[in-house]
Design a protein that fits this description.
- The protein has 6 helices and 5 strands; from the N terminus they run αααβαββαββα.
- The chain has 164 residues and is of the alpha+beta class.
- A 5-stranded antiparallel β-sheet has the order 1-2-3-5-4, sandwiched between helices.
- Helix 2 packs across helix 6.
């Protein structure tokens, strides 16, 4: 009987320590965590922390991050049916590369439906003479990350988004 109590106590301590270690090491992050700060600052952080190829980094001066407006919605999101409280898009001002990266802040209750609307309406072939290789749509809390680009750039930016 005494051995069972000691085993139960040790198991409880082990579970508690595992939870503390996971939280301290960032292993406890979930999609429901809210990201604080402006989307403009988040986008700058993505570029600063993404493991991008040197050619891409060399051309970042020609990229512009702007607030998403009603005029841009359909061309950037593929639809004007997503309700968001804040949105930014980063894209080259002039390039032969198919690329755009979008951050949207939406009501948490609408995250999944907004992600589905992006999937259903985004067009990888919207650029003249070029197409994006891939599209990624992810979220953390109330922020949606939406990118259309080559696979390596999308993966690097996605990794940086998950580390925010």
């Amino acid at each position: 009987m005494k051995n069972r109590k000691i085993t139960a106590l040790m198991t409880g301590i082990l579970i508690l320590l595992t939870g503390v270690l996971l939280s301290a090491c960032g292993g406890g992050k979930t999609d429901s965590e809210k990201l604080e700060g402006s989307l403009q600052d988040m986008m700058a952080s993505l570029y600063a922390n993404a493991d991008l190829v040197q050619d891409f980094k060399n051309n970042l001066d020609s990229y512009e991050t702007v607030d998403l407006t009603d005029d841009l919605e359909v061309s950037i999101l593929g639809t004007d049916q997503i309700t968001y409280t804040e949105g930014v898009v980063s894209m080259p001002m002039m390039s032969s590369m198919a690329y755009q990266c979008v951050l949207l802040r939406v009501d948490e209750a609408d995250v999944e439906s907004a992600k589905q609307a992006l999937k259903d309406n985004a067009d990888l072939d919207k650029w003249v003479c070029v197409s994006a290789e891939t599209m990624l749509i992810e979220s953390r809390g109330d922020v949606i990350f939406f990118i259309m680009s080559d696979k390596d750039t999308a993966a690097a930016m996605s990794s940086a988004f998950q580390k925010l």
